[in-house]
Design goal:
Strand order of the largest sheet: 1-2
Strand content: under 5%
Number of strands: 2
Number of helices: 14
Helix content: 40-55%
Order of helices and strands: HHHHHHHHEHHEHHHH
Largest sheet: 2 strands, antiparallel
């Protein structure tokens, strides 16, 4: 009798699992695997699409290769998109939603307005994934896969990426405005912003190293050049020759959308040059340079270590990206898998 009951229970679980898998391919029950305790597990894990869409990463990479070959800067834009998504209300693709009758888009927030990009690349990846595996790969996972792929294609580290995020049915312009650290942050501000997300000082310095690729607009560093402390003087930590070079790109009046590389020595290559530049007073944003000059021993030491040892930086960047990509994900029955990343189903 006991044996019969156990068989019935197994059949019920198998039926439930099959039902869920058809509703959300890739949905899985953990049998003592990811999630750790046997029973039902709705966590993130690398094999999430192993059966429902095994070619997901391949499709993502094929689109990224073309996009980054056409415009190397796109790699940094996609990395930033994932960061700005996770820091608003968790890694749930809320940043991709356009305005609608029920949504006020995060694209209009102060950190994102006129500067967040890469949406068309995400659209293209989503369209190809929908063709290959309909209703399966979430937009939130696409953002995480695109961030990893962009890092690898720029010469940076690879990492095992936990998957299984679902897409939010909401967006929060206030969370986007309040949770993303501004470019003029002090090191103490940065530590606070990151701590709020469950990230520590090691994560802060490693993830800031993502600025080894990409550019910033003049409006984000103008204050450093002309009025850093409200006294009409430049930031004294700026190396002089670098300061004069930046002034030619970013005049006191106008030119707000002129761009300058965050790492002028190797702007399209993911390496540890960013940290070497900080040691020489050549960090572009206040929030970059304060990691070294901000009188916090931990961040200062980490900048030195990563400048000396690229492997150490790569290893920690990968770990911190996994940690950041796991901020408040929607899993299991929460959220949805959007068919179009810009709008709710």
């Amino acid at each position: 009798m006991e044996c019969f009951k156990f068989t019935l229970a197994l059949t019920a679980i198998a039926f439930l699992s099959a039902t869920l898998s058809s509703a959300h391919p890739g949905f899985n029950f953990g049998w003592g695997g990811p999630g750790g305790n046997g029973g039902f597990s709705f966590g993130l894990y690398p094999e999430f699409y192993q059966f429902s869409c095994p070619q997901a990463d391949e499709i993502v990479i094929s689109v990224l290769e073309r996009a980054i070959a056409n415009e190397p800067r796109m790699a940094a834009s996609l990395l930033r998109l994932h960061f700005h998504d996770c820091f608003a209300q968790g890694c749930d693709a809320s940043v991709l939603l356009d305005d609608s009758s029920t949504i006020v888009s995060e694209k209009k927030s102060l950190p994102n307005r006129n500067s967040l990009r890469g949406f068309q690349v995400i659209d293209e990846i989503k369209a190809k994934l929908e063709e290959a595996c309909p209703n399966t790969v979430s937009c939130a996972d696409i953002l995480a896969l695109a961030a990893r792929g962009s890092t690898v294609l720029s010469g940076g580290p690879n990492w095992e990426l936990p998957l299984g995020r679902r897409d939010s049915k909401t967006a929060s312009i206030s969370a986007s405005n309040n949770n993303i650290p501004p470019p003029n942050s002090t090191v103490q501000n940065l530590i606070t912003f990151f701590k709020r997300q469950g990230l520590n000082e090691v994560d802060l310095v490693a993830l800031s190293g993502g600025h080894t690729i990409g550019v910033a607009r003049c409006t984000t560093f103008k204050q450093r050049l002309y009025n850093q402390n409200g006294n009409n003087q430049p930031d004294q930590t700026l190396e002089k020759a670098y300061y004069y070079g930046l002034k030619s790109v970013c005049p006191r009046n106008g030119g707000d959308n002129n761009i300058s590389p965050l790492d002028f020595a190797s702007p399209a290559r993911f390496d540890n040059t960013y940290f070497k530049l900080l040691l020489w007073g050549k960090g572009l944003l206040t929030s970059d340079e304060v990691l070294f000059t901000g009188s916090v021993g931990t961040t200062m030491e980490l900048v030195k270590k990563y400048a000396e040892d690229e492997g150490l930086f790569f290893d920690q960047f990968a770990k911190s990206m996994v940690k950041m990509g796991s901020i408040s994900p929607l899993t299991g029955f929460k959220g949805e898998v959007r068919k179009n990343c810009r709008r709710l189903n």
